[in-house]
Design a protein that fits this description.
The complex is a heterodimer of chains A (about 475) and B (about 475). Chain A has a two-stranded antiparallel sheet. In chain A, helix 2 runs antiparallel to helix 4 and helix 3 packs antiparallel against helix 14. Chain A is mainly α and about 475 residues long. In chain B, about 70% of the residues lie in helices and about 0% in strands. Chain B is built from 18 helices and 2 strands. Chain B has a two-stranded antiparallel ribbon with strand order 1-2. Chain B is elongated, with a radius of gyration of 30 Å. Classes of the chains: A mainly alpha (about 475), B mainly alpha (about 475). Chains A and B meet through helix 2, helix 3, helix 4, helix 9 and helix 10 of A and helix 2, helix 6, helix 7, helix 12 and helix 13 of B.
Chain lengths: ~475, ~475
C-alpha cells in the first residue's frame, strides 16, 4: 500500500508541475511571503531603533533632571516605550492596535498612547500583509485551487474507476494525493521557517524574547497542523463532490465563511454582548472609588485619619511634627497604595470584559480553524493581547516602584510641613534602574489559549477520521 | 422587451429553484440587517457617551453660575465661587468638551470612529497633555474590524455577484446549451447582457434595500448623503459586474472563471491593500516616540522662586502684545500667572514637534491615497467613510479644531488672570464654544473624484469586455 501511496503522490506532483496557472499561483505565494518577511524585518528594525533611542533619551532626562523635591520628580516621571518583539516580523498581531508608549507619573496611571493604527487612514481596516496572513489565508486558498478537482477530475474522466478496478484502494489514492499536496505545502513551510529561524538567531541581540527558537518551532507545528488539516479537508471535499464546480464552490464558501465572515461576526457579537464603558465613565468610576473608598469605611478622609492615628500611636507622639519622618510622604504613599488597589480592581474588571468579548471568537475556532491559528500565531509571536497586557503590568510595577521610592525618600529625608526646602538629586534618581522588559515564557500561551489548541487539535483529529478506511472502496 | 422579460423570468425561476442561491441571498440579507443593527448599536453607544459628557459639562457650569448668587458662608460654597470667579483656579478647573458627533449615517460605515477618540475633555492646561488620550478599546476587536453595512457591501456583495454570474456562459457550454443558443436570431452577447442585467437589478436592488433599512434606522437623514451613498453603491457594484463580464468574455470554463474571480476578489480586498499598508509603514514610518515627551506634566524649575516666576510671565507677555498693562500687574497672583504662562510657553515650544507628527501622518495618507483610484474597493470604502464623516481626514480636522478651541479656552481665562479681572456671571453667557472646521468643498470634491474614478474604471472594463466577447472563442 505504501508503494501505491508514493506512486500516486508522484503522479499528482508531476501533474501539478505541468500546470502553468498553479506554478504562477505558487510563485505569487512565495513572493508575497518573502515580501511580507522582508517588510516585517524592516519595520522591526525601524521600530527597534526608534524605541531604543527614545528610551535612552528619556533615561538621560530622568537622571539629568537636576535637584528637586522627590514629589516633583515623581510628577516629572518618565516614559516607557513598547519594544517590538522579534517575531513581530512574522506576525504583527495586535501591535498596530495597542499603544506604543506610556507616561509614568505620580497619582495618574496613564493609558498607553499612540496606537500606530491612528497614522494609517481608512485603508488599515483592510489589514496588513504579514507572513502570518499569507500562511493563514492565502496559502489555504492556493490549497483549494490545487485540490478542488483532484478527485472530481478522476471521476469525470473515469480514471478513478480504472484505478479502483486495478486493486488500488480509495484510501491509497486519498493518502497519495494528501501526501503530494502536503509536500507542496512543506516545500514552502520548511525553507520559510528555516529562514525565520536564521533571522531569529542573527537578531538575537534583542533581549526582549529569550525563547525565540522554541516559539518558532511551535509556530511551525501550529501551521503544519492547520495547513495539513486544510489540505486534507479540501481533498475530502473533492472526494465527496459530484463535480469540480461543486467542490470549488463548497471550498470557497468554507474559506470565506471561516476566514472572513465568522471571525468578524463573532468578534462583533462579543462586543455587542459585553460592551465596554467609555474612557470617561471608566476613569470617573476609578476616581469615585479613590475618593469615596471601595467600601463605606474607606473614604479618603477616614483612611487618612486612621493613618494619622496609627502613626501617632506607633511612635507614641501627640502631633505629626514630632514624628521622626515626614508624614506628608507617608500620606502620599498611602494614597498611591489605595489608588493602586482601586486601579487593579477596575483594570481586572475591564480585562475580564475583554476576555468575555474575545470568547465567542475562541469558541468559533472549533468551526473556523483560521481563528484558532490566528490567535495561536500572535500568541507565539508575542504580539497578542496577553503579551501586551504583561508588558502593561510590568510598566505598572515599574511606575509603582518609582513613585514608592520617591515618597519614601520624602518621608525619610524631609520634614513635615516643608516642601521646597528639601531637594533630592542624581543619587536618588539613580536608585531607579532603567526599565528592562523580557517577554514571559512561551508556556503562558498554553494557559490562555487552551481552547484554540483544543479546536486545532480537534480539526486535525477529525481530518484523520475522515481519511477513507481501506475497507471502503465504494465510489460516489 | 419581450425577450428581456422572458429571459428574466427564466433567471427568476432558476434562482427560486436553486436552493443554494436562495440560501446565499437570504444569508447576505440577514448578515446585512445584523450589520445595520451592529453599526447602529455602536453609534448609539457613542451618542450615549456624548450625551453624558454634555450633561456633566452643562451641570458643572450651572453650578458655577449659581455660585454667584449664593451667600458663600459655607466652605464648599466659597470654594465653588472661587473656582467659578477666580481665573487663577478656573483656567485649569473648568472642563470643556470638544465633540465630533456621529453623522446621521455613521452607523452604516463606522470607519475610524472606533479607532480615533470622538470627544476630548479640555481645560486651559497643556493641550498636549490632554490631546493624546485614547478611548478604551479591545485591541483584538480593533484588529478584526467592524461588521457594518459598508463591510457587507464591499466584501460580501462582490462574492454574491461572482456566485451568480461566473457560470453564465461557461455553464451553458458545459451543459450543451450553447449550440441551441447560437441558433437564436439574437446574439450571444445580447443574451448574456440581458441575463447579467437581471442579476445586476437583483443584487443592486438588494444593496439598495439594505441601505434603505440603514437610512430608515437613522434619526436624521439628508437627501444629499443618501444620494451619494446610493451612487457609491451603484458605482462599486457596477465595477464588479463589469469585471465579471470581462471574465465571462474570456470564455474559460466555469471552474477557471470562478478561480479567476475569487483571485481578483482576493487581490482587491486583501492582497493589494495589505501590501500597500505594509509599504506605507516601511517607506513612511511614523515616529511618535519623540512626541511622547510633549505630553509630560511640567512645572517651573523652582516653584518657590518668585523672580523666576516673574521672568516666565514676562517672557510670555512678550508674545502677547494685546495684554497691555499686564506686566505692571504681575506682582499680584504671580505664581498662578507664572504657571499659566509656563504652560502656554511649553505648548508653544512643542507646537512644531506636534505639527511635524501630524504632517508625517498627512503625508503618509496622501501618498497612500495616490493608489486609491487603482483599487475600487479601497476607493469605495474611502468614499463611504467620507460620505458619513467617519474618515481619517475628518478626525484630523477635529484635532486642528481642538487646537483652536484650546486657544480660545486659554485666552478666555488667562487674559482675565493677567489683567487681574474676575470672571463675572455675565461672562458665562459668552463661554468658549467648540466649532468643527471642515473644508466641505474639498471633501465633496474628493467624494466626487472617488465616484468618478470608480465609474470610469467600470466603464473601461465594460467596454473592454464588450470588444473581447466576440473576439474570443470557447
Amino acid at each position: 500500500m505504501k508503494r501505491q501511496v508514493f506512486l500516486i503522490a508522484g503522479k499528482e506532483l508531476k501533474g501539478m508541475a505541468r500546470q502553468n496557472a498553479l506554478k504562477i499561483l505558487f510563485a505569487i505565494i512565495i513572493i508575497l511571503l518573502g515580501f511580507a518577511l522582508y517588510a516585517g524585518h524592516i519595520a522591526y528594525k525601524q521600530q527597534k531603533v526608534m524605541v531604543e533611542t527614545a528610551q535612552k533619551e528619556r533615561r538621560a532626562e530622568w537622571l539629568d533632571q537636576g535637584n528637586k523635591h522627590p514629589h516633583i520628580a515623581a510628577h516629572y516621571g518618565t516614559y516607557v516605550f513598547k519594544p517590538k518583539t522579534l517575531l513581530s516580523l512574522f506576525d504583527f498581531g495586535l501591535d498596530t492596535y495597542t499603544g506604543t508608549s506610556v507616561y509614568l507619573e505620580a497619582h495618574y496611571p496613564h493609558e498607553f498612547m499612540f496606537r500606530p493604527v491612528q497614522g494609517y487612514g481608512n485603508m488599515i481596516r483592510f489589514g496588513e500583509l504579514s507572513a502570518a496572513l499569507v500562511l493563514q489565508l492565502l496559502l489555504p486558498l492556493l490549497i483549494i485551487f490545487i485540490t478542488f478537482q483532484t478527485f472530481t477530475k478522476e471521476k469525470e474522466t473515469g480514471t478513478l474507476k480504472l484505478l479502483v478496478s486495478q486493486g488500488v484502494s480509495i484510501r491509497s489514492i486519498y493518502l497519495g494525493k494528501v501526501l503530494a499536496y502536503s509536500l507542496i505545502v512543506f516545500s514552502i513551510m520548511v525553507p520559510f521557517f528555516t529562514g525565520l529561524y536564521i533571522v531569529g538567531v542573527i537578531e538575537k541581540t534583542s533581549a526582549v524574547i529569550n525563547d525565540v527558537g522554541l516559539r518558532i518551532l511551535l509556530l511551525f507545528c501550529v501551521y503544519v497542523g492547520y495547513l495539513w488539516a486544510f489540505t486534507n479537508f479540501s481533498v475530502w471535499i473533492s472526494l465527496k463532490s459530484s463535480s469540480a464546480r461543486n467542490a470549488l464552490l463548497t471550498l470557497l464558501i468554507f474559506w470565506i465563511a471561516t476566514g472572513i465572515i465568522i471571525p468578524k461576526t463573532s468578534a462583533n457579537l462579543g462586543e455587542t454582548l459585553h460592551p465596554l464603558p467609555s474612557m470617561k465613565t471608566y476613569k470617573e468610576g476609578i476616581q469615585h472609588d479613590i475618593e469615596n473608598g471601595m467600601n463605606p469605611n474607606d473614604t479618603k478622609e477616614k483612611r487618612m485619619a486612621r493613618l494619622k492615628e496609627d502613626y501617632l500611636q506607633q511612635y507614641g507622639v501627640d502631633s505629626l511634627n514630632q514624628l521622626p519622618l515626614n508624614f506628608g510622604g507617608i500620606q502620599m504613599q498611602e494614597g498611591e497604595e489605595y489608588a493602586n488597589k482601586v486601579h487593579d480592581f477596575h483594570d481586572a474588571t475591564l480585562y475580564k470584559k475583554f476576555e468575555r468579548q474575545n470568547k465567542p471568537g475562541s469558541l468559533m475556532g472549533f468551526v473556523a480553524p483560521y481563528i484558532a491559528v490566528r490567535n495561536l500565531s500572535m500568541a507565539f509571536a508575542a504580539t497578542d493581547w496577553y503579551s501586551f497586557n504583561n508588558f502593561q503590568e510590568k510598566t505598572n510595577t515599574y511606575r509603582r516602584h518609582l513613585i514608592r521610592t520617591m515618597n519614601n525618600d520624602m518621608a525619610k529625608n524631609s520634614r513635615y510641613g516643608e516642601f521646597y526646602e528639601y531637594k533630592a538629586g542624581r543619587n536618588l534618581w539613580e536608585t531607579i534602574s532603567d526599565f528592562k522588559y523580557l517577554t514571559p515564557k512561551v508556556t503562558m500561551v498554553f494557559k490562555y489559549y487552551w481552547m484554540e489548541l483544543a479546536s486545532l487539535s480537534l480539526w486535525v483529529l477529525i481530518m484523520f477520521i475522515l481519511i477513507p478506511s481501506s475497507s471502503k472502496n465504494k465510489l460516489i | 422587451m419581450k425577450l428581456i422579460l422572458l429571459l428574466w423570468q427564466r433567471e427568476g425561476i432558476s434562482i427560486i429553484r436553486n436552493t443554494f442561491q436562495m440560501v446565499m441571498l437570504s444569508t447576505i440579507f440577514l448578515l446585512g440587517t445584523y450589520a445595520i443593527y451592529y453599526g447602529n448599536s455602536k453609534i448609539m453607544e457613542q451618542h450615549k457617551t456624548i450625551k453624558n459628557v454634555e450633561h456633566i459639562e452643562k451641570n458643572k457650569f450651572e453650578h458655577y453660575k449659581n455660585s454667584f448668587y449664593s451667600d458663600h458662608t459655607a466652605v464648599e460654597e466659597k470654594q465653588l465661587f472661587d473656582i467659578a470667579s477666580n481665573p487663577a483656579y478656573a483656567w485649569y478647573r473648568h472642563e470643556y468638551h470638544a465633540i465630533l458627533p456621529p453623522n446621521g449615517l455613521s452607523h452604516m460605515s463606522l470607519g475610524q470612529r472606533d479607532i480615533e477618540p470622538y470627544y476630548y475633555k479640555l481645560t486651559g492646561t497643556s493641550l498636549y497633555y490632554q490631546l493624546f488620550q485614547s478611548e478604551l478599546a479591545n485591541p483584538l476587536k480593533l484588529y478584526v474590524g467592524n461588521f457594518d453595512i459598508s463591510f457587507v457591501l464591499i466584501y460580501l456583495f462582490p462574492l454574491l455577484i461572482i456566485a451568480f454570474t461566473y457560470g453564465l456562459y461557461a455553464e451553458e457550454k458545459e451543459n450543451g446549451m450553447l449550440p441551441l443558443l447560437r441558433l437564436q436570431t439574437i446574439g450571444l452577447r445580447k443574451i448574456l447582457l440581458i441575463r447579467i442585467a437581471f442579476y445586476y437589478a437583483l443584487i443592486v436592488g438588494l444593496g439598495i434595500l439594505l441601505s434603505s433599512i440603514g437610512f430608515f434606522v437613522s434619526s436624521e437623514v439628508d437627501i444629499l448623503t443618501v444620494s451619494l451613498w446610493i451612487s457609491a453603491v451603484l458605482c462599486y457594484l457596477s465595477f464588479w459586474f463589469a469585471l465579471m463580464f470581462l471574465l465571462i468574455s474570456l470564455k474559460k470554463n466555469s471552474s477557471l472563471t470562478a478561480i479567476s474571480a475569487a483571485s481578483l476578489w482576493l487581490l482587491f480586498l486583501i492582497v493589494l491593500p495589505a501590501v500597500l499598508n505594509v509599504y506605507a509603514n516601511i517607506v513612511y514610518p511614523i515616529d511618535n516616540t519623540s512626541l511622547a515627551d510633549v505630553t509630560r506634566r511640567r512645572s517651573l524649575e523652582n516653584e518657590e522662586d518668585l523672580d523666576e516666576a516673574k521672568a516666565v510671565v514676562l517672557e510670555y507677555l512678550q508674545s502677547r502684545n494685546d495684554l497691555k498693562g499686564a506686566d505692571s500687574l504681575l506682582h499680584i497672583n504671580t505664581m498662578a500667572k507664572a504657571y499659566a504662562a509656563f504652560t502656554a510657553l511649553n505648548d508653544n515650544h512643542h507646537r512644531k514637534e506636534v505639527s511635524d507628527y501630524f504632517t508625517q501622518i498627512r503625508l503618509r495618507q496622501k501618498k497612500i491615497s495616490l493608489f486609491r483610484w487603482a483599487n475600487p474597493a479601497v476607493n469605495t470604502q474611502g468614499v463611504l467613510n467620507e460620505i458619513v464623516e467617519s474618515d481619517s481626514e475628518i478626525f484630523q480636522s477635529f484635532y486642528q479644531s481642538i487646537e483652536s478651541f484650546h486657544k480660545d479656552i486659554t485666552r478666555f481665562y488667562v487674559d482675565k488672570l493677567f489683567l487681574n479681572k474676575e470672571i463675572t456671571s455675565k461672562n458665562y453667557e459668552a463661554l468658549p464654544k467648540f466649532n468643527l472646521k471642515i473644508d466641505s468643498e474639498n471633501r465633496n470634491q474628493k467624494i466626487k473624484n472617488g465616484l468618478l474614478e470608480i465609474m470610469v474604471t467600470s466603464l473601461l472594463i465594460f467596454a473592454l469586455s464588450w470588444l473581447l466577447f466576440n473576439k474570443t472563442t470557447f
